[in-house]
Design brief:
This is Hydroxymethylpyrimidine/phosphomethylpyrimidine kinase. Keywords: Kinase, Thiamine biosynthesis, Transferase. It catalyses: 4-amino-2-methyl-5-(phosphooxymethyl)pyrimidine + ATP = 4-amino-2-methyl-5-(diphosphooxymethyl)pyrimidine + ADP; 4-amino-5-hydroxymethyl-2-methylpyrimidine + ATP = 4-amino-2-methyl-5-(phosphooxymethyl)pyrimidine + ADP + H(+). The protein is α/β, with parallel strands linked by helices. The chain has a single domain (about 5-265), classed as 3-Layer(aba) Sandwich (UDP-N-acetylmuramoyl-L-alanine:D-glutamate ligase), CATH 3.40.1190.20. Helices cover about 35% and strands about 20% of the residues. The protein has helices spanning about 20-30, 55-65, 85-95, 120-130, 140-145, 155-165, 210-220, 225-240; strands spanning about 5-10, 30-45, 45-55, 75, 100-105, 135, 170-175, 180-190, 190-195. A 9-stranded mixed β-sheet has the order 3-2-1-4-5-6-7-8-9, sandwiched between helices. Helix 3 (about 85-95) links the parallel strand 4 and strand 5 (about 100-105). Helix 7 (about 210-220) crosses helix 8 (about 225-240). The protein is globular. Bound molecules: adenosine-5'-triphosphate (ATP) and 4-amino-5-hydroxymethyl-2-methylpyrimidine. 4-amino-5-hydroxymethyl-2-methylpyrimidine (HMH) binds near residues 9, 79, 115 and 209.
Length: about 270
Protein backbone atom coordinates (compact mmCIF):
# COMPACT_ATOMS: atom_id res chain seq x y z
CA UNK A 1 0.00 0.00 0.00
CA UNK A 2 1.16 3.54 -0.73
CA UNK A 3 2.91 5.17 2.25
CA UNK A 4 1.67 8.54 3.45
CA UNK A 5 3.16 11.61 5.09
CA UNK A 6 1.71 14.75 6.65
CA UNK A 7 3.31 18.17 6.76
CA UNK A 8 2.21 20.59 9.47
CA UNK A 9 3.71 23.90 8.36
CA UNK A 10 3.18 27.35 6.84
CA UNK A 11 2.31 28.09 3.23
CA UNK A 12 4.92 29.95 1.12
CA UNK A 13 3.17 31.87 -1.66
CA UNK A 14 6.35 31.68 -3.78
CA UNK A 15 6.34 27.88 -3.59
CA UNK A 16 9.98 27.38 -2.59
CA UNK A 17 9.66 26.65 1.13
CA UNK A 18 6.96 25.61 3.61
CA UNK A 19 4.01 23.44 2.68
CA UNK A 20 4.69 23.76 -1.03
CA UNK A 21 8.30 22.52 -0.76
CA UNK A 22 7.16 19.74 1.56
CA UNK A 23 4.48 18.43 -0.79
CA UNK A 24 6.80 18.55 -3.83
CA UNK A 25 9.49 16.71 -1.86
CA UNK A 26 7.18 14.06 -0.45
CA UNK A 27 5.69 13.39 -3.86
CA UNK A 28 9.11 13.13 -5.52
CA UNK A 29 10.14 10.73 -2.74
CA UNK A 30 7.27 8.40 -3.49
CA UNK A 31 4.81 9.01 -0.66
CA UNK A 32 1.30 10.42 -0.67
CA UNK A 33 1.46 13.95 0.85
CA UNK A 34 -1.10 15.64 3.12
CA UNK A 35 -1.01 19.04 4.83
CA UNK A 36 -2.27 20.88 7.88
CA UNK A 37 -1.51 24.57 7.32
CA UNK A 38 -0.46 26.57 10.40
CA UNK A 39 -0.21 29.95 8.64
CA UNK A 40 -0.34 31.66 5.29
CA UNK A 41 2.72 33.71 4.45
CA UNK A 42 2.89 36.36 1.75
CA UNK A 43 6.44 35.63 0.70
CA UNK A 44 8.81 35.52 -2.24
CA UNK A 45 12.52 34.94 -2.82
CA UNK A 46 13.36 38.36 -1.36
CA UNK A 47 11.40 38.22 1.88
CA UNK A 48 8.22 37.70 3.90
CA UNK A 49 5.76 40.61 3.81
CA UNK A 50 2.89 39.19 5.89
CA UNK A 51 1.90 36.24 8.07
CA UNK A 52 -1.69 35.18 8.73
CA UNK A 53 -1.98 32.44 11.34
CA UNK A 54 -4.67 29.74 11.37
CA UNK A 55 -6.78 29.75 14.51
CA UNK A 56 -6.03 26.95 17.00
CA UNK A 57 -9.57 25.60 16.44
CA UNK A 58 -9.11 25.44 12.68
CA UNK A 59 -5.71 23.74 12.95
CA UNK A 60 -7.25 21.17 15.32
CA UNK A 61 -9.94 20.48 12.71
CA UNK A 62 -7.36 20.05 9.96
CA UNK A 63 -5.50 17.52 12.11
CA UNK A 64 -8.69 15.66 13.09
CA UNK A 65 -9.68 15.45 9.42
CA UNK A 66 -6.36 13.90 8.43
CA UNK A 67 -5.81 11.53 11.34
CA UNK A 68 -9.35 10.12 11.41
CA UNK A 69 -9.22 9.19 7.74
CA UNK A 70 -5.78 8.66 6.18
CA UNK A 71 -3.32 7.93 8.99
CA UNK A 72 0.13 9.33 8.09
CA UNK A 73 3.15 7.01 8.27
CA UNK A 74 5.30 10.02 9.13
CA UNK A 75 4.75 13.64 10.16
CA UNK A 76 6.96 16.64 9.44
CA UNK A 77 6.50 19.85 11.45
CA UNK A 78 7.84 23.12 10.08
CA UNK A 79 6.88 26.75 10.75
CA UNK A 80 4.55 27.18 13.73
CA UNK A 81 4.80 30.74 14.95
CA UNK A 82 2.48 30.80 17.92
CA UNK A 83 2.30 29.05 21.32
CA UNK A 84 -1.34 28.07 21.12
CA UNK A 85 -0.84 26.46 17.71
CA UNK A 86 2.14 24.50 19.02
CA UNK A 87 0.05 23.24 21.94
CA UNK A 88 -2.75 22.10 19.62
CA UNK A 89 -0.27 20.14 17.52
CA UNK A 90 1.29 18.48 20.58
CA UNK A 91 -2.14 17.55 21.94
CA UNK A 92 -3.36 16.08 18.66
CA UNK A 93 -0.15 14.15 17.90
CA UNK A 94 -0.42 12.53 21.36
CA UNK A 95 -4.14 11.86 21.00
CA UNK A 96 -3.60 10.05 17.67
CA UNK A 97 -0.26 8.48 18.64
CA UNK A 98 1.44 9.84 15.55
CA UNK A 99 4.58 8.01 14.38
CA UNK A 100 7.90 9.09 12.88
CA UNK A 101 7.71 12.76 13.83
CA UNK A 102 10.36 15.03 12.29
CA UNK A 103 10.50 18.50 13.87
CA UNK A 104 12.27 21.26 11.94
CA UNK A 105 12.51 24.06 14.55
CA UNK A 106 12.00 26.83 11.99
CA UNK A 107 12.92 30.21 13.48
CA UNK A 108 14.24 32.48 10.72
CA UNK A 109 13.71 32.32 6.93
CA UNK A 110 16.68 32.22 4.52
CA UNK A 111 15.76 35.84 3.71
CA UNK A 112 16.16 36.82 7.39
CA UNK A 113 12.47 37.13 8.41
CA UNK A 114 11.56 35.85 11.88
CA UNK A 115 9.00 33.03 11.63
CA UNK A 116 8.33 32.24 15.31
CA UNK A 117 7.39 34.56 18.14
CA UNK A 118 9.97 34.79 20.91
CA UNK A 119 7.72 33.33 23.59
CA UNK A 120 6.80 30.35 21.40
CA UNK A 121 10.33 28.89 21.44
CA UNK A 122 9.83 27.65 25.03
CA UNK A 123 6.52 25.98 24.12
CA UNK A 124 8.20 24.33 21.14
CA UNK A 125 10.89 22.93 23.43
CA UNK A 126 8.57 21.80 26.20
CA UNK A 127 5.67 20.37 24.21
CA UNK A 128 6.82 19.37 20.75
CA UNK A 129 10.48 18.36 21.04
CA UNK A 130 9.77 15.42 23.38
CA UNK A 131 7.45 13.92 20.72
CA UNK A 132 10.06 14.05 17.95
CA UNK A 133 11.94 11.10 16.50
CA UNK A 134 14.42 13.62 15.13
CA UNK A 135 14.98 17.39 15.35
CA UNK A 136 16.69 19.19 12.45
CA UNK A 137 18.11 22.54 13.66
CA UNK A 138 20.50 24.56 11.51
CA UNK A 139 23.46 26.16 13.29
CA UNK A 140 21.74 29.42 14.38
CA UNK A 141 18.79 27.36 15.70
CA UNK A 142 21.12 24.98 17.56
CA UNK A 143 22.80 28.06 19.07
CA UNK A 144 19.46 29.39 20.32
CA UNK A 145 18.54 25.96 21.72
CA UNK A 146 21.82 25.43 23.60
CA UNK A 147 23.03 28.98 24.29
CA UNK A 148 26.42 27.95 22.83
CA UNK A 149 28.34 29.57 19.97
CA UNK A 150 28.94 27.01 17.21
CA UNK A 151 32.08 27.60 15.16
CA UNK A 152 33.47 24.11 14.45
CA UNK A 153 32.41 20.53 13.80
CA UNK A 154 33.29 19.69 17.41
CA UNK A 155 30.86 22.42 18.54
CA UNK A 156 28.15 20.84 16.34
CA UNK A 157 28.68 17.47 18.02
CA UNK A 158 28.48 19.00 21.49
CA UNK A 159 25.36 21.07 20.67
CA UNK A 160 23.58 18.06 19.12
CA UNK A 161 24.54 15.92 22.11
CA UNK A 162 23.10 18.46 24.56
CA UNK A 163 19.83 18.83 22.63
CA UNK A 164 19.46 15.05 22.15
CA UNK A 165 20.03 14.41 25.84
CA UNK A 166 17.61 17.10 26.97
CA UNK A 167 14.72 16.03 24.74
CA UNK A 168 15.49 12.32 24.40
CA UNK A 169 15.39 12.30 20.61
CA UNK A 170 17.83 12.19 17.72
CA UNK A 171 19.25 15.49 16.44
CA UNK A 172 20.49 16.34 12.95
CA UNK A 173 22.54 19.55 13.14
CA UNK A 174 22.81 21.02 9.63
CA UNK A 175 26.10 22.58 8.53
CA UNK A 176 24.57 24.06 5.38
CA UNK A 177 25.56 27.58 4.39
CA UNK A 178 26.82 28.60 7.83
CA UNK A 179 30.02 26.53 8.05
CA UNK A 180 30.60 26.81 4.32
CA UNK A 181 30.29 23.08 3.78
CA UNK A 182 27.34 20.74 3.38
CA UNK A 183 28.17 18.37 6.23
CA UNK A 184 25.45 17.52 8.71
CA UNK A 185 25.87 15.78 12.05
CA UNK A 186 23.41 13.16 13.29
CA UNK A 187 23.42 12.44 17.02
CA UNK A 188 21.29 9.37 17.72
CA UNK A 189 21.02 6.25 19.81
CA UNK A 190 24.14 4.67 18.28
CA UNK A 191 26.31 7.75 18.88
CA UNK A 192 27.06 10.29 16.17
CA UNK A 193 27.64 10.16 12.45
CA UNK A 194 28.66 12.77 9.88
CA UNK A 195 26.80 12.98 6.59
CA UNK A 196 29.10 14.60 4.10
CA UNK A 197 27.33 16.45 1.34
CA UNK A 198 29.06 17.76 -1.78
CA UNK A 199 28.79 21.53 -1.48
CA UNK A 200 27.02 22.85 -4.55
CA UNK A 201 27.84 26.36 -5.63
CA UNK A 202 24.27 27.56 -5.95
CA UNK A 203 23.01 30.75 -4.25
CA UNK A 204 19.41 29.57 -4.63
CA UNK A 205 18.83 27.78 -1.33
CA UNK A 206 15.32 28.98 -0.43
CA UNK A 207 13.60 26.05 1.27
CA UNK A 208 16.57 23.70 1.73
CA UNK A 209 15.68 23.10 5.39
CA UNK A 210 12.01 22.35 4.60
CA UNK A 211 13.04 20.03 1.79
CA UNK A 212 15.54 18.09 3.89
CA UNK A 213 13.12 17.48 6.78
CA UNK A 214 10.32 16.44 4.40
CA UNK A 215 12.61 14.04 2.55
CA UNK A 216 13.64 12.49 5.89
CA UNK A 217 9.95 12.12 6.85
CA UNK A 218 9.13 10.54 3.47
CA UNK A 219 11.91 7.99 3.89
CA UNK A 220 10.90 7.18 7.48
CA UNK A 221 7.36 6.67 6.15
CA UNK A 222 8.80 4.11 3.71
CA UNK A 223 10.35 2.30 6.75
CA UNK A 224 14.00 3.21 6.13
CA UNK A 225 15.89 3.61 9.40
CA UNK A 226 16.97 7.10 10.48
CA UNK A 227 20.58 7.15 9.17
CA UNK A 228 19.44 5.74 5.81
CA UNK A 229 16.61 8.30 5.66
CA UNK A 230 19.09 11.13 6.29
CA UNK A 231 21.46 9.76 3.66
CA UNK A 232 18.70 9.54 1.06
CA UNK A 233 17.41 13.01 1.98
CA UNK A 234 20.92 14.50 1.55
CA UNK A 235 21.17 12.85 -1.84
CA UNK A 236 17.79 14.34 -2.82
CA UNK A 237 18.88 17.86 -1.73
CA UNK A 238 22.07 17.52 -3.80
CA UNK A 239 20.02 16.60 -6.85
CA UNK A 240 17.56 19.47 -6.37
CA UNK A 241 20.38 22.02 -5.86
CA UNK A 242 22.46 20.65 -8.75
CA UNK A 243 19.58 21.24 -11.18
CA UNK A 244 20.48 24.96 -10.93
CA UNK A 245 17.01 26.45 -11.23
CA UNK A 246 17.31 30.22 -11.22
CA UNK A 247 14.06 32.01 -10.42
CA UNK A 248 13.27 35.26 -8.63
CA UNK A 249 15.34 38.24 -7.56
CA UNK A 250 16.54 36.80 -4.24
CA UNK A 251 17.61 33.38 -2.96
CA UNK A 252 15.51 31.27 -5.32
CA UNK A 253 13.88 27.85 -4.93
CA UNK A 254 15.32 24.45 -5.84
CA UNK A 255 14.16 22.26 -8.70
CA UNK A 256 12.15 19.27 -7.48
CA UNK A 257 11.43 18.49 -11.12
CA UNK A 258 14.89 16.89 -11.45
CA UNK A 259 13.44 13.76 -9.87
CA UNK A 260 10.36 13.58 -12.06
CA UNK A 261 10.44 11.99 -15.49
CA UNK A 262 7.80 10.72 -17.89
CA UNK A 263 5.61 11.85 -20.73
CA UNK A 264 3.69 14.53 -18.75
CA UNK A 265 6.90 16.47 -18.13
CA UNK A 266 7.33 17.31 -21.85
N1 LIG B 1 25.18 24.84 -1.14
C1 LIG B 1 24.82 23.65 -0.66
N2 LIG B 1 25.25 22.50 -1.25
C2 LIG B 1 24.86 21.29 -0.79
N3 LIG B 1 24.05 21.11 0.27
C3 LIG B 1 23.59 22.21 0.90
C4 LIG B 1 23.94 23.53 0.49
N4 LIG B 1 23.30 24.43 1.31
C5 LIG B 1 22.60 23.69 2.19
N5 LIG B 1 22.79 22.37 1.97
C6 LIG B 1 22.18 21.25 2.69
O1 LIG B 1 20.78 21.48 2.72
C7 LIG B 1 20.23 20.97 3.92
C8 LIG B 1 19.47 22.07 4.63
O2 LIG B 1 20.40 22.80 5.38
P1 LIG B 1 20.34 24.33 5.68
O3 LIG B 1 21.43 24.64 6.64
O4 LIG B 1 20.32 25.06 4.40
O5 LIG B 1 18.94 24.42 6.37
P2 LIG B 1 18.15 25.66 6.85
O6 LIG B 1 19.08 26.79 7.16
O7 LIG B 1 17.25 25.18 7.92
O8 LIG B 1 17.31 26.00 5.56
P3 LIG B 1 16.29 27.22 5.36
O9 LIG B 1 17.16 28.33 4.84
O10 LIG B 1 15.36 26.66 4.32
O11 LIG B 1 15.65 27.51 6.67
C9 LIG B 1 21.42 20.42 4.72
O12 LIG B 1 21.53 19.04 4.48
C10 LIG B 1 22.59 21.18 4.16
O13 LIG B 1 23.81 20.49 4.36
C1 LIG C 1 6.34 29.05 5.28
C2 LIG C 1 7.80 28.93 5.48
N1 LIG C 1 8.28 27.93 6.25
C3 LIG C 1 9.60 27.78 6.45
C4 LIG C 1 10.49 28.66 5.88
C5 LIG C 1 11.98 28.50 6.15
O1 LIG C 1 12.75 28.47 5.05
C6 LIG C 1 9.96 29.71 5.07
N2 LIG C 1 10.77 30.63 4.47
N3 LIG C 1 8.63 29.81 4.90
Amino acid sequence: MRKTALTIAGSDSSGGAGIQADIKTMMANGVYAMSAITALTAQNTTGVSAIFNATPEFLAQELDSVFTDIFPDAVKIGMVSDRELISVIARKLKEYQARNIVVDPVMVATSGARLISEDAVDTLKQELFPLAAVLTPNIPEAEVLTGMKICTGEDMIEAARQIAQQYQCAVLCKGGHQLNDANDLLYFKDGYRWFEGKRIDNPNTHGTGCTLSSAIAANLAKSYDLPTSVERAKDYISGALSAMLDLGAGSGPMDHGFAITGKYVQ
